[in-house]
Write a structure and sequence with these properties.
With about 210 residues, the protein is mainly α. The protein has helices at about 1-5, 25-30, 30-40, 55-85, 90-140, 155-175, 180-205.
Amino acid sequence: MDFIVQPPHDVLPSIQSFQEINCEKLKTDLQPDVRGGERGRRNEPASDSRDLDTVEQEILHRIDAQAKADLEIFTGEMQSYARRLGTISHEGYAGEIRGKLRSTLADFKAEVHQGRDELYSQRRQIVDLDDDYERFRRQHGISHSADYPVSRVLHWSIILLLMIGEGILNGLMLKRGLEGGLIAGIGIAFAISVVNVGFLGLFLGSR
């Protein structure tokens, strides 16, 4: 039943193009241990002989045959690759690459030109603002740099105290003739102060 189990070729089954030698099949087919023992007992070949034994020659012949088959496969594959490479149009690919390079370069130049225009416009705005700033300093005789306070709590506190003080003083004058008396006068005066400060803030902010 061994002939049913053993594959018909001298290589192991594989999906690769170049398959591995099936040493077990060669051993079963050629029986080098049995035949070598028999020939050794008959002193074949002679101990001083430099030629290979018959069994050794058969092993080399089977391996050499498989090597030639693999070489034919390799040569065929290389010829197939060579034919495929020969059908590729290098000029077509080169022209396509040159076209894409020209298109990319044109887009890059357009972006650079647009960015340059935007930078020029922003630079003009900065120069105009700087000129206005220097002109304002000269007109008002300002020689020191602007001082920006970290917190404006003090400023708002002073404004609030002035509004309260103004509201109380105006309330004392407005309480006459009002049914609510001093409280009504202070309320009206405080509302007037809020309106005045609001209009003043809008006026200064617009400038």
